[in-house]
Amino acid sequence: MQTNSCKEIIKSFSDNNLSYIKITSPEIELTDISKIFSCGQSFRFERYEHSRHEKEFCGVAYGKFVSFAQDDNELYIYNTNEAEYLALWQRYLALDLTYNEIMQNILENISYPVINEALNCGRGIRILNQEPWEVICSFIISQNNNIPRIKKIIKAISKALGEKIDAGNMTSHGASDVEFAFPTPSATKNCGVSLLCDLKTGFRAKYIFDAAQKVANGDIDINQLYALTTEQCISELCKIYGVGLKVANCCALFAFEKYDAFPVDVWIKRVLEKYFDENVNISAFGKYAGIAQQYLFYYEKYLQFNR
DNA sequence: GGCCAGGACCTTA
DNA sequence: TAAGGTCATGGC
């Protein structure tokens, strides 16, 4: 794995009841928070329209309400401090990886014009390292669904079943006084299928319930999945009723650091047919195939909505 | 009012 | 083994 050896400069601030940090580093030059939070990998962040920065996205991750703001090559993280950044948000944002080397690796492995175009178009996208249970549940919800509605359902589930978060110090960064963490597997399991169905999950309710059961009782051991190969990890995830290859690949990529996992949804299927040889092998993309996949996904949607 | 959305499962042949 | 139907729901 490529490790970022370039030194970051982290400055800490405190403003009334709110602590925040400012980060500058070469990696921030390959970071665009608006692409990161609108490329379909994460569903709990919203743009904060009244930001004093060029762009700002706020939401809940790892049980905390946080906001990420950016002006050019400066990244601000509100409601955190340096220690928490180093322990949590650095890895969450993948700022411990050097994306230049990752993109070079992709380009060296596979040579198609669309790869260059997609990497260029999506410049700044980074694959977040999100919480495994939240990712499993979120991508079960994603099936045969669209992104705005996925976000709405996840918000409703969190409000109904998640722990309250006191976010009073973050109302000037898009928070309500009370926000809600993503519910635990056992809270989700205890909720039961019919209430999950009431939360507009529809036919996915029984899938979510089975996932919650298997994770809560240890049939699926989240901590063990990190240590497995990509193939083993995907195969374990597919033991959940309602998790097939596409959802399992999303989980492997977005939660378990399996950067060669390559989710194929309707968009990526279209991309493969449109730009690649008929029998192109996914392994040709190399060990960062999943990251290439995310740039291709963003690129194709970008073309669709910017014509 | 049919079609589509970051699909998976079940039935049928 | 492959193809086609089914499942909830909302936006267009």
Task: Describe this protein's structure.
The chain is α+β, with helices and mostly antiparallel strands. Helices cover 45% and strands 14% of the residues. The protein has 14 helices and eight strands. It has helices at residues 33-36, 82-92, 99-109, 113-121, 132-141, 147-161, 185-191, 193-201, 205-216, 222-225, 230-237, 245-254, 266-275, 289-305; strands at 9-15, 18-24, 45-47, 55-61, 64-71, 74-78, 164-166, 178-180. Strand 5 and strand 6 form a beta hairpin. The structure holds a DNA duplex (13 and 12 nucleotides).
CATH level-4 homologous superfamily of one domain: Hypothetical protein, domain 2
Q: What is the average of the pLDDT values? A: 96
Radius of gyration: 19 Å
Q: What name does the CATH topology of one domain carry?
A: Endonuclease III, domain 1
Which CATH-level-2 architecture of one domain?
Orthogonal Bundle
State the end-to-end CA separation.
37 Å
Helix content: 40-55%
Characterize the quaternary organization of these chains: single chain
Uncertain stretches: none
Class by helix and strand content?
alpha+beta
DSSP, total strands: 8
How many helical stretches?
14
Order of helices and strands: EEHEEEEHHHHHEEHHHHHHHH
Estimate the global geometry from the Cα principal axes.
globular
Strand order of the largest sheet: 1-2-6-5-4-3
Describe the biggest sheet? Answer: 6 strands, antiparallel
So what's the CATH class of one domain? Answer: Mainly Alpha
Report the β-strand fraction as a percent range. 5-15%
